[in-house]
Amino acid sequence: QVQLQESGPGLVKPSETLSLTCTVSGGSTSGYYWSWIRQSAGKGLEWIGRIYSSGNTNYNPSLYNRVTMSVDTSKNQFSLRLSSVTAADTAMYYCARDVAGILGYWGQGTLVTVSS
Amino acid sequence: DIQMTQSPASLSASVGDRVTITCQATHDISYFLNWYQQKPGKVPKLLIYDASNLETGVPSRFSGSGSGTDFTFTISSLQPEDIATYYCQQYDDIPPTFGQGTKLEIK
Question: pLDDT tens digits, residue range B64-85?
């Protein structure tokens, strides 16, 4: 059974960079897309972007100039960096396995608060 | 972006009732639509993919239908454990987008 676990700081200061990692167990990162999704009270569920195991990425245009994703197949991990954060980036962040747009496996989520 | 509009935003029904939620897309998305269930404090769970295919292990009282711009999600006989918020999601185009959710409560 594939399992995903997000990790990273729960508190980030405004204007700084949010960095999260998702560790995959019970399966390989190779051969799949891996997505990041966030959920805030104000905006519901928002897809941030995805990365293929080869490193190819697709980002949400609304975040395009602030998002960077990377993957380390040797560690079975993929990562999200979101720069220049503001309070609007406060949300629960989820990682998920993306099979042609179908999000079948999700991590438990990690709450990130942007505050000084 | 393709906008997804769910209706209703909230719904109260009795155990055993048939419950229907609709989802409308601003563009033709063929059958590229998923339905997720999110129980309070929990992670979204895939129930239906490709508009009408039941994910493995999901009870058969859940079903989905539709294509193009109009989709329907149905619970044939509501159970107490079905209390949750339900979301549709299109994946015909990047970025994938979600409906705003339908909060289902028991009367």
Answer: 999 999 999 999 999 999 999 9
Which residues of chain A make contact with B87, given a CB cutoff of 8 A? Answer: 44-45
The secondary element (H helix, E strand) that includes residue B25 is strand B19-25
How many Å apart are CA A34 and CA A36, to the nearest integer? 7
Question: DSSP E strands: which ranges in chain A?
Answer: 3-7, 11-12, 18-25, 33-40, 44-52, 57-59, 67-72, 77-82, 91-99, 102-106, 110-114
Nearest to A67 by CA among A76, A77, A75, A57: A57
At A7-64, the pLDDT tens digits run: 999 999 999 999 999 999 999 999 999 999 999 987 789 999 999 999 999 999 999 8
Taking CA atoms, what residue in B is nearest to A103? B46
- B36: which strand partners? B46, B87
Please tell me what DSSP assigns to residue A89.
Answer: G
- CA dist., res. B100 & res. A15, Å (int): 28
- Are A46 and B49 in contact (CB < 8 Å)? no
> CA angle, corner A92, sides to B80 and A90, nearest 5?
135
